[in-house]
Write a structure and sequence with these properties.
The complex is a heterodimer.
Chain A lengths: L1 H19 L17 H5 L7 H18 L4 H11 L1 H9 L16 H24 L5 H26 L4
Chain B lengths: L5 H43 L17 E10 L8 E4 L12 E4 L2 E9 L4 E5 L7 E5 L5 E5 L7 E5 L12 E4 L11 E10 L4 E8 L8 E7 L2 H12 L1
Antiparallel strand pairs in B: 1-2, 1-12, 2-5, 3-4, 3-12, 4-5, 6-7, 6-9, 7-8, 8-11, 9-10, 10-11
Classes of the chains: A mainly alpha, B alpha+beta.
């Protein structure tokens, strides 16, 4: 119950700072980081996926409501929430985790960076792919995905380093 | 799925009241310029109307073709491929879907979803936006679209080959659609890609800076239903 309450507060805070702050950064004229996906990295690792899928879908949907993007963020966030565990086991080369003790700071720094970069890149590729939705604009999609991913990943790393304790 | 509902609209309303404060100076300047322009127009009218050439105007034969409304932009996007805006007036104030949104410097978009107190606007910076436009002092017309690259430039397509276009020509709305009246400013021709057969793409630099717009006018075409009905009759 405590966990659910904590996650709900996280959820609301992330929606508000994404919508009111990060959507208005416009770095170099057009780059806005999609910082809210830090939720997926922070969410405690569990065997059952349903609660995470539920939360991440509604997180994406809330962002969509605010930015008039009709379900794009919901689709992308739900997808990376679904592939979070397989990607993590591929990067750590483990099939079983110590679910209770797992923490993003507990694994080595290099591996956690890879984990964040992979999921962020997939998320951004889906978001911009669905936004442009045209093969004519393939290079636009790729370039925008790369540039925004760099910005998002550095912000997420910064937030994780600043606001979590090392175990 | 749009931001024209009570929750998102309310939050953007609060945020906008803070942001407004920082844009007061430029917005006042724009409104002042518009006022000066309109006052100049009025002074011309007064000079021509006097008692010598008095004409009786029968107001029952006059038709009011366009209604104007005012609104304020609460949320402005210009960095995505498909941008939508949010304005602070809705069906309660007579706003309907498919009304033109303009300000004194030029076109901004077309309304889409309307709720009671808010409405979303398809910006001209959107792949779904297609607006009829022409070159000033000419009657060849084309379609305005956006290629998603630069928010200060939109593209004019489908102009006939024989049109004489020069860099620096003014582009205005064509009035061939039921949404925009004729003669609303759009921008100036910035770049022409010409090949042997036809004009490919004409880049139009907007008069409006789409990254900072605040007060807008909405235009309702009162004869829209009539025109649409006529066109439907044609198809049968």
């Amino acid at each position: 119950m405590n966990n659910l309450f904590q996650n709900s507060i996280w959820f609301v805070v992330l929606v508000i700072i994404q919508v009111l702050f990060f959507n208005n950064i416009n770095l170099f004229g057009y780059i806005n980081p999609l910082f809210y996906i830090i939720f997926i990295f922070y969410y405690p690792l569990k065997k059952e996926k349903i609660s995470l899928l539920f939360f991440s879908f509604f997180l994406g949907l809330c962002i969509d409501f605010f930015s008039d993007t009709g379900g794009i963020n919901a689709a992308a966030t739900l997808f990376i929430a679904y592939i979070r565990l397989p990607i993590l086991s591929a990067i750590l080369r483990k099939s079983e985790f110590d679910y209770q003790l797992f923490n993003i700071r507990a694994i080595s720094f290099g591996k956690s960076i890879w984990y964040i970069i992979t999921l962020t890149f997939i998320h951004h590729l889906i978001v911009f792919g669905l936004d442009y939705f045209s093969f004519n604009e393939f290079w636009n999609i790729i370039s925008k995905t790369f540039i925004t991913s760099i910005f998002t990943v550095s912000l997420i790393l910064l937030a994780i380093i600043l606001f979590t304790k090392r175990r | 799925m749009s931001s024209a509902n009570n929750i998102t609209g309310g939050i953007y309303n609060k945020l906008n009241s803070i942001n407004d404060f920082f844009n007061l100076k430029t917005e006042n300047q724009r409104l002042l310029e518009e006022n000066t322009y309109l006052k100049n127009l009025l002074s011309i009218e007064q000079f021509s109307i006097d008692s010598i050439n008095k004409i009786n105007i029968d107001s029952t034969t006059q038709v009011k073709r366009f209604d104007y409304f005012s609104a304020k932009i609460l949320k402005n996007d210009f960095t995505r491929r498909n941008n939508f805006l949010l304005i602070n007036k809705g069906s309660k104030f007579g706003i309907e879907p498919e009304m033109a949104v303009v300000n004194s410097k030029g076109i901004i978009g077309v309304t889409k979803n309307v709720s009671k107190y808010h409405a979303t606007v398809i910006s001209i910076l959107n792949s779904y936006s297609q607006i009829n436009a022409k070159i000033k002092n000419d009657h060849h017309f084309g379609t305005l679209t956006w290629n998603g690259k630069d928010y200060q430039k939109i593209q004019l397509l489908d102009l006939p080959r024989q049109t004489k276009v020069k860099i620096g020509d003014t582009i205005i709305t064509g009035g061939k659609s039921t949404i925009f009246p004729e003669g609303i400013l759009v921008g100036v021709v910035d770049n022409i890609e010409k090949n042997n057969k036809k004009f490919e793409v004409i880049d139009v630099k907007l008069f409006n800076d789409m990254s900072s717009i605040s007060n807008v006018n909405l235009i309702k075409n009162n004869q829209k239903d009539e025109i649409i009905k006529l066109q439907l009759d044609n198809d049968e």
